[in-house]
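Suppose a classmate hands you a notebook page containing two proteins, each written out with its sequence and a corresponding row of structure tokens. How would you begin to make sense of it? This section walks through that situation. The first entry is reproduced here exactly as it would appear on such a page.
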Amino acid sequence: MVVNVEENAMKNKYSKVGLNFENKDVGEFLIDNKDIRICRSNVDGVELTSLKDACEKDTDVQKKKWFLIKKESDEITKKVSKGFDNGYFVRSKKGVKIDGFVQTCLSIGDNGVEQNVHNVVVAGDFSQMHVLTGCLTVGKAKQSQHNGVTEIYVGKGAKLTYTMVHSWSDDTIVRPKTVIRVEEGGQFISNYICIDKVADIKMYPECILVGKKSYANMNSYILARTGSKFDIGAGVQLKGKNSSCLIKARIVSMGGEVVNRGIMEGENGGVKGHLECSGLIVGKGLIHAIPEIKANNDNTDLTHEASVGKVSKDVLEYLQSRGLTASQAMELVLRGFLDINNVSVPKTIAKRISRIPVEKEMTD
């Protein structure tokens, strides 16, 4: 059941995760705590509804739910399967190419909420679509936990961009679990962005390239503030012949702890993949990069590189010689390092990264 709300009252409420429900885009979906507040598609060719409603009307959706991810996989999937608080279902029709964003939002606004959501996304054959998901706490919500299961299907020759922006409170526990399946000639582009303090995030999306010449590009942009803990990464299974992937992570630790896991597994001939993790530590913090490559075929080309270091003293001194303060110089370097101008995201997100503040003790 969809609950009507005054959308004018939500102006800028969700802008920190790039969402704007006032300006209607391809479609909008909002869960607040456990209730669906907005659910609509504004264009032909894209279906957007609750997962419950989709399963009731369509046996194909029923088959896709809990197909890529099994209910008994771990404690999080068990929680979501038993305490299901709904979720979104998005499907683009065959051959439809859509500009703009399908905006989806999972928000927590009350204390002590455990939110359990299950989402399914289907990109029809030869279609093109961009799903923008913002996940956040609003107001002064405390002691909450978000558990999310998302199953994504990219059809033959389709291109799906999936951008997730997180902005949780500093005591929120976050447990997303995502698996993607890509068919022949399909492309999956993933962008994960988190620049706000959070208690504890564990997420490891897995992409299975089953089709010939399928492709995945998995990107992460992380700013780990003091007190934040991230256990993140991405995995790609290259099963399809001549499939390829690129996994990239840009991480800045400003006192936070980050474990970044990346794995590529080549299982067929002609596959190519590159795994890259770049990290900067500002002040005290931890970045632990764990790259892993598996090759089950002698005709594979899989590479990885990782680098973690501090901001060059020479660079900071040069910028200060040009009239910048120590904080301004550090901010400029970090903004350049986390630059997302080549990523298709709302301007509000790019603007937030361009205004990253640096705590005084970081420059002392």
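The notebook's second entry, a different protein, reads as follows.
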Amino acid sequence: MKNTDIALSTAEILLPKQGLSLEKWAVVACDQFTAEPSYWAEAEMTAKGVPSALWITLPEIYLNERSARVPGIHASMREYLGSALAAEVPEGFVLVERGTSAGLRQGLLACVDLEKYDFSKGSESLIRATEGTVPERVPPRAEIRSEAPLECPHVMMLIDDPECSVIEPALSDPGRLLYDFDLMLGGGHIRGWALEDGRARRVFDAVARLAERAGGLLFAVGDGNHSLAAAKQCWASLRETLSSAELESHPARWALVELVNLHCPALVFEPIHRALFNADPEAVLAEWRASGAFRDGGEDVRIAFGDRVLGFSCDGHPIRPLQDFLDGFLKRRPEAEIDYIHGDESLLSLACRENTVGFMPRAFDKAELFPYIRKYGVLPRKTFSMGHARDKRYYLEARRIVS
């Protein structure tokens, strides 16, 4: 079942065959724990010698090894299609309930139409990015997907559904249980059910009603922006080789994602801080005040250096003028460097270092997200994080993307 008007489709969902360990199969999104090699070493020990999504994905910590790892990833995909994976949902959605540090988060595994997705600046497509796409982060993912026979997604796609009309009603009649287990390395508990036939049709009807009041923006990428951009890039190249009939039916036109309601209480937006290194704090502060974008006093942005923390206010959310200031400062002061930091304690610890300045913007209110994107377009890179690292989506379900 598919409806291109709302960019939504069911899919044949593949899962590990009975007898295989789901705990060893499912692994956290590739862009987590990039500075913690011990985490990935433990994951490799956990999955050693058995089929695992770890062997068909590329953790970003190993990006510099991708020329050696990518052929093995493709080989494992082909092997798993013939041995480890089975079509547990011949045609449908998967309703997901995930235990996280913030509570139970519900989601809906579905396919979205890449023809209706545009991550370029100023996009008015039905599916849009929430943050600016960093061009150099797309090719490594595209390199994997371009030769891949299947996809195993970590993309979380947001819907703005304050009436809880799409995902939540399915919980009262979830259908056939597919899995129920603890995720590896403290990832919490996860359960999933197959939504097929009438249950799937009810989802289509609910999304169609949501689209009528969506103001042209139905789906916004929450996590996995660069992975979805890579899928779009691969599809744009492939579509040039296809006939009109193949354009309509080719599986690579669609991308498997987890839809999550922006209004789910367990979906938490956390700010991502900035740290400037090799920068004299007094010079930074002088240029900051001279920019005229911020006023002394307030909590929109806190600036930390040494043992001092200063508060500033601005009109609207501070993230765009903050990033504009930092980008300009880095151009004027090429000796300075920037990093993006999660958590107040980590940022304040760094700010105690000599010639280091920390910037702590206030959290981005979830209710601001869709109106902001409609009005201004994508947010600056690294605006928010959806929960802690272990709360991110785990690679679990898979889908064929070759015809």
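A careful reader of the second entry would note: Residues 2-268+388-400 form one domain.
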